[in-house]
């Protein structure tokens, strides 16, 4: 008989977790994982048609049902679960424990938003908690954690290869008690959604510094600052990602006070490196959850008695048996890679987890894009329509695959 640290939890929220993960879960984590599962399955997924209906004619307004669910989730203690337990503001979960929650959240694209656990909020909240002074925390962090403000991260630019972030060129110039910003940006959530409160912007403040890693700074830029223009929405393969989306922006003589700088001039790369690790884990686990749901939809299609070409279940054909089996193998393997990265971060720190984080950001988006597309194929022509969430899933997975390649990780 092998000893166990904790009783092994039961039920669909835990069935895919390997034993070594189950035994590391605290009683708090077990309760939160189960609560997140119940929330996503009973509150979010059934409301997916309502969210779509409320977006019709109001593409850039956050649907009222999401605001209602956010208040309800906050009341249930399901807000800000992602912030690791070494932060004063943390609810108490480790990176590994939260990863189990993030997978479940991925089953519905906007479920994480109802729990204030969505990108880019997660990365920005952790950044502000880690690097801001107390005055900045009171002004910018607390509203984000309370859910009364919303933020975005602004790094990528159209005129340079932003995968090499030392090329980021938007100019930040000191002028008396202010900084003045001039240049162009891509991505960063859409200004057309009036819920957006501020950007965390990375720009070049000291272009002549011989140390290229000390040329850049990060500023908090309120969205209503004069001089910011959204030129257009950036669609992803024709999908606008409303109500958040992305944009192409022009900054012309945008003036912000010096107290909006984070940590100090020339510290942007130090901040960015501290921001990226956990966020990649969150993204990857949500993608695994999304792919798990696609897999379940494929299983339903394979066993639908109404759809029997040549008198056989779709799932009885050898090619589909092989597809489903290979999908199961790769999903379980992918989960192990990400959970290992999260556990390494908890045990040895974010820097020690860099290898597992790098493996995750390459493997998981590729796996998700591949297998969600296969699930669409199993549905035939219907798989390309709004009859299932699969088309949106494949767009999101392809978007993640390109973003993780170095354009912008949020």
TrEMBL record:
Acyl-CoA dehydrogenase/oxidase C-terminal domain sequence ranges: 269-393
Organism from which the protein derives: Neoarthrinium moseri
Name of the protein: Acyl-CoA dehydrogenase
Protein family: Belongs to the acyl-CoA dehydrogenase family.
Record domain Acyl-CoA oxidase/dehydrogenase middle: where: 152-249
UniProt xrefs under Pfam families: Acyl-CoA_dh_1 (PF00441), Acyl-CoA_dh_M (PF02770), Acyl-CoA_dh_N (PF02771)
Any one GO biological process: fatty acid beta-oxidation using acyl-CoA dehydrogenase
GO cellular component: cytoplasm
InterPro entries according to UniProt: Acyl-CoA_dehydrogenase, Acyl-CoA_Oxase/DH_mid-dom, Acyl-CoA_Oxase/DH_mid-dom_sf, AcylCo_DH-like_C, AcylCo_DH/oxidase_C, AcylCoA_DH/ox_N, AcylCoA_DH/ox_N_sf, AcylCoA_DH/oxidase_NM_dom_sf
GO molecular function annotation: acyl-CoA dehydrogenase activity; flavin adenine dinucleotide binding
Gene3D superfamilies (alphabetical): Acyl-CoA dehydrogenase/oxidase, N-terminal domain, Butyryl-CoA Dehydrogenase, subunit A, domain 2, Butyryl-CoA Dehydrogenase, subunit A, domain 3
Record keywords, A-Z: FAD, Flavoprotein, Oxidoreductase
Limits of the Acyl-CoA dehydrogenase/oxidase N-terminal domain: 35-147
Cofactor: FAD
